[in-house]
Amino acid sequence: MATPVLDKVEAESAASPYITVTFRVRRFNPEVSAEATWEDFQLEIDPKERVLDGLHKIKWELDGTLTFRRSCAHGICGSDAMRINGRNRLACKTLIKDINPEKPITIEPIKGLTVLKDLVVDMEPFFQAYRDVMPFLVTTGNEPTRERLQSPEDRERFDDTTKCILCAACTSSCPVFWNDGQYFGPAAIVNAHRFIFDSRDEAGEQRLEILNDKDGVWRCRTTFNCTDACPRGIEVTKAIQEVKRALITRRF
């Protein structure tokens, strides 16, 4: 005869939210092979959890050698950008239930940057392009005795491009960047935009000349991949077009 305790356990088991999901991960270890391979992992996981939770489960319970970047796990640091089912996304912001868990979930590193191991790429070329556009406020004169005031309208002019978290999702979704790593890329242009249109800044002309280079803003082909890939919803293509317009008119 069943006891009330056993009945409760069986009822909870029947109502379990867990499902079986296949994570198909692209693996690469240069110390083992020069070629990348695919490896499948079967997970029992709540579909309301995130892809990052699944990767943690693999690393902590199944294969400790799996290598990937993550930090805040809340879509702020941008560390865990990767290709999930062929699209650039943040693993910490992507729910399993939103990407058809009935089929294998493919996970691979972002494109256009050298893969160091598994899902980790060399971000140095990306950050060098970011540094090259001078992503900081440039002013002249003595240090002010109070803050540099700015009207709400002036602040709104570049508000969208302040949202960038340097995850590289936009840049590594760009076909021009895939074919030519010398292109500055959308993220660098977005961060230049943020200061070019800042009314307090005095180096707009200098940044425009940097982006007027053969590897600069004119390489953009307006495919909108970058806008679609941005996890922060930045209108990346629009920002690039505004920089192009500023170069032509020298008005910003």
TrEMBL record:
<dbReference type="InterPro" id="IPR017900">
    <property type="entry name" value="4Fe4S_Fe_S_CS"/>
</dbReference>
<protein>
    <recommendedName>
        <fullName>Fumarate reductase iron-sulfur subunit</fullName>
        <ecNumber>1.3.5.1</ecNumber>
    </recommendedName>
</protein>
<dbReference type="GO" id="GO:0009055">
    <property type="term" value="F:electron transfer activity"/>
</dbReference>
<keyword id="KW-0479">Metal-binding</keyword>
<dbReference type="InterPro" id="IPR050573">
    <property type="entry name" value="SDH/FRD_Iron-Sulfur"/>
</dbReference>
<dbReference type="Pfam" id="PF13183">
    <property type="entry name" value="Fer4_8"/>
</dbReference>
<keyword id="KW-0408">Iron</keyword>
<dbReference type="GO" id="GO:0022904">
    <property type="term" value="P:respiratory electron transport chain"/>
</dbReference>
<dbReference type="InterPro" id="IPR004489">
    <property type="entry name" value="Succ_DH/fum_Rdtase_Fe-S"/>
</dbReference>
<dbReference type="GO" id="GO:0051539">
    <property type="term" value="F:4 iron, 4 sulfur cluster binding"/>
</dbReference>
<comment type="pathway">
    <text>Carbohydrate metabolism; tricarboxylic acid cycle.</text>
</comment>
<keyword id="KW-0411">Iron-sulfur</keyword>
<dbReference type="InterPro" id="IPR012675">
    <property type="entry name" value="Beta-grasp_dom_sf"/>
</dbReference>
<dbReference type="GO" id="GO:0008177">
    <property type="term" value="F:succinate dehydrogenase (quinone) activity"/>
</dbReference>
<dbReference type="InterPro" id="IPR025192">
    <property type="entry name" value="Succ_DH/fum_Rdtase_N"/>
</dbReference>
<dbReference type="GO" id="GO:0006099">
    <property type="term" value="P:tricarboxylic acid cycle"/>
</dbReference>
<keyword id="KW-0003">3Fe-4S</keyword>
<feature type="domain" description="2Fe-2S ferredoxin-type">
    <location>
        <begin position="19"/>
        <end position="113"/>
    </location>
</feature>
<dbReference type="Pfam" id="PF13085">
    <property type="entry name" value="Fer2_3"/>
</dbReference>
<keyword id="KW-0004">4Fe-4S</keyword>
<keyword id="KW-0816">Tricarboxylic acid cycle</keyword>
<comment type="similarity">
    <text>Belongs to the succinate dehydrogenase/fumarate reductase iron-sulfur protein family.</text>
</comment>
<keyword id="KW-0560">Oxidoreductase</keyword>
<dbReference type="GO" id="GO:0051538">
    <property type="term" value="F:3 iron, 4 sulfur cluster binding"/>
</dbReference>
<dbReference type="InterPro" id="IPR001041">
    <property type="entry name" value="2Fe-2S_ferredoxin-type"/>
</dbReference>
<dbReference type="GO" id="GO:0046872">
    <property type="term" value="F:metal ion binding"/>
</dbReference>
<keyword id="KW-0001">2Fe-2S</keyword>
<dbReference type="InterPro" id="IPR036010">
    <property type="entry name" value="2Fe-2S_ferredoxin-like_sf"/>
</dbReference>
<dbReference type="GO" id="GO:0051537">
    <property type="term" value="F:2 iron, 2 sulfur cluster binding"/>
</dbReference>
<dbReference type="InterPro" id="IPR017896">
    <property type="entry name" value="4Fe4S_Fe-S-bd"/>
</dbReference>
<feature type="domain" description="4Fe-4S ferredoxin-type">
    <location>
        <begin position="154"/>
        <end position="176"/>
    </location>
</feature>
<dbReference type="InterPro" id="IPR009051">
    <property type="entry name" value="Helical_ferredxn"/>
</dbReference>
